[in-house]
């Protein structure tokens, strides 16, 4: 993790259009070539400093990739 965040457990991966799709604690969604592990693309989903975490595996719906997120921060005020 390039931001120094605690890495939490993964919530799953899936294959979509010949790509392995997953997400990371720092808010990045990414696609890998399942045969080589090479990064195909990545996209920021949220600001990694928000404290929110993915709460489920990504899924494809209507040509989009959807990732469920929790609604609470890591720490209370």
CATH topology: Thrombin, subunit H
What is the structural class? mainly beta
Helix content: under 10%
CATH class: Mainly Beta
Number of DSSP helices?
Answer: 0
The tally of beta strands, per DSSP, is 6
- Which consecutive residue ranges, at least 5 long each, have pLDDT under 50? none
Average pLDDT, all residues: 77
Distance between the termini: 25 Å
Q: What is the CATH architecture descriptor?
A: Beta Barrel
Bulk shape: globular
Walk me through what this model shows.
The chain is an all-beta fold and 77 residues long. 0% of the residues lie in helices and 32% in strands. The protein has strands at 14-16, 19-23, 28-32, 39-44, 59-61, 64-66. It is built from no helices and 6 strands. β5 (59-61) and β6 form a beta hairpin. It has a 4-stranded antiparallel beta sheet, with no helix packed on it. It has a two-stranded antiparallel ribbon with strand order 5-6. The mean pLDDT is 77. The radius of gyration is 13 Å and the shape is globular. The protein starts with 13 loop residues before the first strand and ends in an 11-residue tail after the last strand. The chain has one domain: Beta Barrel (Thrombin, subunit H).
Main attributes of the structure:
Thrombin, subunit H; four-stranded antiparallel sheet; mainly beta; single chain; 77 residues; two-stranded antiparallel ribbon
